[in-house]
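Supplementary Note 3. Input sequence used for the single-chain structure prediction.
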Amino acid sequence: MKLLAKTHYGLEQVLSDELGKLGAAGITILNRAVAFEGSKQLLYSVNYRSRLALSVLVPVSSFGISGQKDLYNGAVAVEWDRYLDPRKTYAVTAVVNSPHFNHSGYAALVVKDAIADFFRRLTLPRPSVDVRDPDLLVNLHISNERVTISLDSTVVPLYRRGYRQGRSEAPLSEVLAAGMIALSGWGADRPLTDGMCGSGTIVSEAGLIACNIAPGKFRKSFGFMRWKDFDAALFRSVRFEAEKRERKSPVKIFGSDISPEACDTARGNLKSAGLEDTVVISGNDFFTTPPPAEEGTLIINPPYGHRLGTDDMTEFYGRIGTTLKHSYEGYHAWILSGDPVALKQVALKPFRKYELLNGDIECRFLGYELYGGSRKRKGTDTL
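The predicted structure, written as discrete structure tokens, is reproduced below.
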């Protein structure tokens, strides 16, 4: 079975690595997506266990077009009765970049009509359209003159884990947070802290990783559970195997924020995920409070003026750099920021650089090695 996992820009490689560990074959990295091959069991497993995928699509048809009529003809030729009971509902979403269509909504309407006409030609009832809660969500992708029609096995995006009880003013996507952790190289082998944790997305995702808890554990449903060929016993086995991998975290994880409201929200989210004994939340000021462990990994998503702001961003980021130099020796520190000018005020040389998107904001994710004095002395002793 050919499959396609969608993700955020910049996370394609780490998603590819994750899919390989889950058992995927034929992996090909694309723009904001990874194509791969696998069984129905893998389809269920990726939806349930992937931390880095936004959704998983199952392509059912691919064809070329030279005009709008070709889209209808190609769509009506799909054997829709294999996938959709006429008594059920469906919807079509579209992403279109083609000279033949000026509006993605019109292309989606063409496919919607083709599906309805397919059943009418078989003298069967026309399935109803339900854009809010369809039994089958059809994904249409047109790039120039190439069409791919897929079934969305996820429907509700996978960043909606199901454990979040509250949100801060500008929360990270859970998938982006997990991707940042993956890019940092943290593998629950050293303490992790977020000194500007907000509603706790980064530390929550780190807690799930440390405890080997599948991110799909808290979701009530996936799109494939309403398909004609849904195998409930197979999905139960996928969930059972995932639960057997759970463990007690081998490391402590710390989150702090100057806002009492943010700390309360973070604690509520962690409790919902069963991580209240794994992640410690404290109401501390990043700039005046010593780090919670002698060494570890720090990942922060400070304000950068687009969604949140400070009166003087350059001064704010300068203080971040000063704090890292003076207080975080022995740490690997990572900063996500959409303000490249302010980010330069950190005045440290990064050893890793990644480009990411936080919503529609272009961001840089930079890693810094902050060597402590004792480490320098050890290095000197070996010369």
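The domain at 174-213+244-381 is CATH 3.40.50.150 (Rossmann fold). Residues 374-383 have pLDDT under 50 and may be disordered.
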